Amino acid sequence: MPASSKPSLPPFDPTDPLGLDDLLEPEDLAVRDTVRGWAADRVLPHVAEWYEQGELPTVRELARELGALGALGMSLSGYGCAGASAVQYGLACLELEAADSGIRSLVSVQGSLAMYAIHRFGSEEQKQTWLPRMAAGEVIGCFGLTEPDHGSDPASMRTHAKRDGGDWVLCGRKMWITNGSVAGVAVVWAQTEDGVRGFVVPAGTPGFSAPEIKRKGSLRASVTSELVLDDVRLPADAVLPEVTGLRGPLSCLSHARYGIVWGAMGAARSCFEAALDYARTREQFGRPIGGFQLTQAKLADMAVELHKGILLAHHLGRRMDAGRLRPEQVSFGKLNNVREAIEICRTARTILGANGISFEYPVMRHAANLESVLTYEGTVEMHQLVLGKALTGLDAFR
């Protein structure tokens, strides 16, 4: 082919150095751009103040707006849910966490934990009662699994439910529950004589309370609570009928972890873009610091890990859409992407110098948030052991 007839290469895009947008369909791009625009308008102007104050004062309003966008339970089908692809859901998570991890957590807990549990394991009556209102953001949900003394070892949970005539009576405590004190419904997992079961607990049920946890150093623009269950009496049909055992909550966690694989890259992207812009404009020794070799080496390494992580997330999303995504592969993604996201944030902080700790920039906020993301829904060690067992065939958990 003559040189003159060769197609011209597209220009290099610093925001998409691998050309990953070529992997996306027009519908995918539309979802991404819609969520990005909403976050830019409704979250970014306020989130530094929310974070500094340690509150999310408009959480119910934001939930209704996210419902109108179709972002709540968006990968579920029917009952008012959007029925979006796994890749589209992942793109939404990335854009939400680029604004703040707390906003992505609100959506993840609502859709991938509380709604997913009811959608997959609930009765038709439970689905009809709760899912349409949760999809619209009219009802916020939470998911009670972690306890004060049992996080990585949910099989040892102390919360229990006993039959009393035709009712169930729940007793116990759950800890570090996103959305807890603003939730209209909680999906609570408890030990029973038949094994671990899930229960749909409406807020306001006598004996149920959700005091908010304060004085957090991370995820400050997010509602985090304890769930207290003191002889909570529920009717027989409050139990999720389609699952018994830890398979239920663990499958929900796997779905939520998938969103984290994408979301962590959103936080990393925000920090990378802040560092790149700063490096182009901040002058030292008579020129922008982006012109120095050490700064360019940092930016290059950050870009490589950021876009490798997005590519990994995209690959896992395609596998999920094809029904071929294994829990071990989700652990692979969560372990890698959160770990690399934290390193990107820390490196961005060094480029910004003292300004990196200011809330005028997003870097320190994202770095602190990711310290929570690193350990919730599976610590580094747990995901390493999941992969270790898959690689060797040997169980090192006990």
From TrEMBL:
User: Keywords of this protein's UniProt record, alphabetized?
Assistant: FAD, Flavoprotein, Oxidoreductase, Transit peptide
In terms of Gene3D superfamilies, this protein maps to: Acyl-CoA dehydrogenase/oxidase, N-terminal domain, Butyryl-CoA Dehydrogenase, subunit A, domain 2, Butyryl-CoA Dehydrogenase, subunit A, domain 3
GO BP terms:
fatty acid beta-oxidation using acyl-CoA dehydrogenase; fatty-acyl-CoA biosynthetic process
Please give the Gene Ontology molecular function terms for this protein: fatty-acyl-CoA binding; flavin adenine dinucleotide binding; glutaryl-CoA dehydrogenase activity
Under the heading InterPro entries, the entry gives: Acyl-CoA_Oxase/DH_mid-dom, Acyl-CoA_Oxase/DH_mid-dom_sf, AcylCo_DH-like_C, AcylCo_DH/oxidase_C, AcylCoA_DH/ox_N, AcylCoA_DH/ox_N_sf, AcylCoA_DH/oxidase_NM_dom_sf, Glutaryl-CoA_DH_mitochondrial
The answer to whether the entry has keyword Ribosomal protein is: no
Keyword presence, Transferase:
no
Domain Acyl-CoA oxidase/dehydrogenase middle intervals: 142-232
Q: Which cofactor does it need?
A: FAD
Q: Where is the Acyl-CoA dehydrogenase/oxidase N-terminal domain?
A: 26-138
Q: Which residues form the Acyl-CoA dehydrogenase/oxidase C-terminal domain?
A: 245-391
Q: Mind telling me which Pfam families this protein's record contains? A: Acyl-CoA_dh_1 (PF00441), Acyl-CoA_dh_M (PF02770), Acyl-CoA_dh_N (PF02771)
Q: Which family is annotated?
A: Belongs to the acyl-CoA dehydrogenase family.
Q: What is this protein called?
A: Acyl-CoA dehydrogenase family protein
What organism does the UniProt record list as the source? Streptomyces mexicanus
